[in-house]
Specification:
Largest sheet: 6 strands, parallel
Distance between the termini: 51 Å
CATH architecture of the largest domain: 3-Layer(aba) Sandwich
Bound molecules: adenosine monophosphate
Structural class: alpha/beta
Number of domains: 2
CATH class of the largest domain: Alpha Beta
Strand order of the largest sheet: 1-4-3-2-5-6
CATH topology of the largest domain: Rossmann fold
Strand content: 15-25%
Shape: globular
Radius of gyration: 20 Å
Oligomer: single chain
Helix content: 25-40%
């Protein structure tokens, strides 16, 4: 595995491989502190592509909270040790100065209306920062396909929308959320949780599972959301930012008697740590099912 720390070096990777057919290249973009969720993306990429590039970059542009940025876990040696056995070809881990040599970029990508709902509403500027770095990293690594996790459902919607609206010639592949055995969605931020907070945080996946059960039994979306909110309210140390439902294509909020595919999403603070989770499901019968 080649470890590349600068954009200039990354450019050298391309000519070095010239002469032999480049093949299909996949990229997995991460902020490091890798766990099994990230590794699921890498394995999926490895199976589908000839060349796998993993990026590790904690992107300051997407943090609305300086304290969150400063305490975000970073351990490149541990990340490299996890990636090497998976057959990753290139680990690209640039510095902030290398990615943003002029400081904050003058021209950025806007997530438009996606900024007004759910994560966008609660983390001002977050999706503009995400899309700006994703587009930059796509230009820098030139993949055929990029892998993202369903864990960040609204992020996937924003990236798909960017690629569609700006004709970005990169396929977007999505990998299901990886969870611990007890249901907690894996996240680099879980490292901040105390044992007690971790136990409390389980209420999030439990609330989503109970909402899903309401829908599976034919109940309306409004009831599923009421149940999810009631479950989370049982644990006062878990303070929700939102518990809601979104259209899986536009991220627009849906509710009431909506029928069709839906993402039920939750964000909450557990102590000083903000966690998100979601479930992709459907309101009403599936196609072909009576
Ligand atoms: P991050 O390092 O948090 O920016 O995440 C990098 C990529 O890994 C994103 O596409 C995330 O959606 C994905 N990811 C993070 N956690 C999980 C998880 N538990 N399951 C699946 N994908 C994940």
């Amino acid at each position: 595995m080649l470890i590349v720390r600068t954009t200039a070096e990354l450019d050298q990777v391309e000519p070095a491989r010239a002469g032999k057919r480049r093949g299909r290249r996949a990229v997995v973009m991460t902020m490091g502190a890798l766990h099994e969720g990230h590794l699921a993306l890498v394995r999926a990429a490895r199976e589908a592509a000839d060349q796998v590039v993993v990026t590790v970059f904690v992107n300051p542009l997407q943090f609305d909270d300086v304290a969150d940025l400063e305490r975000y876990p970073r351990d490149l040696d541990a990340d490299a040790a996890l990636l090497e056995p998976l057959g990753v070809d290139v680990l690209y881990a640039p510095s902030v100065a290398d990615v943003y040599p002029g400081g904050r970029p003058i021209v950025t990508v806007s997530a438009g209306a996606i900024n007004d709902v759910f994560e966008g509403e609660h983390r001002r500027g977050h999706f503009d920062g995400v899309l700006t770095v994703v587009l930059k990293l796509m230009h820098l690594t030139r993949p055929d396909v990029a892998y993202f996790g369903q864990k960040d459902a609204q992020q996937v919607i924003a990236i798909r929308t960017m690629c569609r609206d700006l004709n970005v010639p990169v396929g977007v592949a999505v990998v299901p959320t990886v969870r611990d055995g007890d249901g907690l969605a894996l996240s680099s931020r879980n490292a901040h949780l105390s044992a007690g907070e971790r136990a409390d945080a389980l209420v999030l996946s439990r609330a989503l599972a109970e909402a899903q059960q309401v829908l599976d039994e034919g109940g309306p979306l409004s009831l599923a959301l009421t149940v999810a909110r009631a479950v989370v309210a049982q644990v006062p140390s878990v303070v929700p930012d939102y518990i809601g439902a979104m259209d899986p294509v536009s991220a627009a909020p849906v509710g009431g008697d909506y029928r069709g595919d839906v993402v039920i999403a939750v964000a909450a603070r557990v102590g000083g740590t903000r966690l998100i989770d979601n479930v992709v499901t459907r309101v009403g019968p599936r196609e072909g099912v009576a």
